[in-house]
Amino acid sequence: AFNKLSQAERLLLYDDWMTRPDAPPTRTPSALVAADAALYLARAERTIIGGREDQKLRALKFLELAESKMAVPLLQKVRQWSIKRRTIELTVKITETLERLERN
Hints:
Blueprint: H1 7-19, H2 28-35, H3 37-50, H4 53-66, H5 71-84, H6 88-103
């Protein structure tokens, strides 16, 4: 059924996870990234760079829960971006997420 969804429909699944007022399902990120890693990793990167503070943190949680080694280079890239922009708190959060993914 997932393969029948358009890219826009697939992104709605990410948007739903990101905007839920209640705690989003913890298994969703890994299922979404397993089904279409390029799409969901790119969207999470975009959220970290351009989202509101709460969205950035939720995108980091999405990447952590995805448990994908493919997220490591993405996190390294956005960490460098964050360092250059001197967003210290975000850099710390990215580093923590990166360390958790590298340990697993």
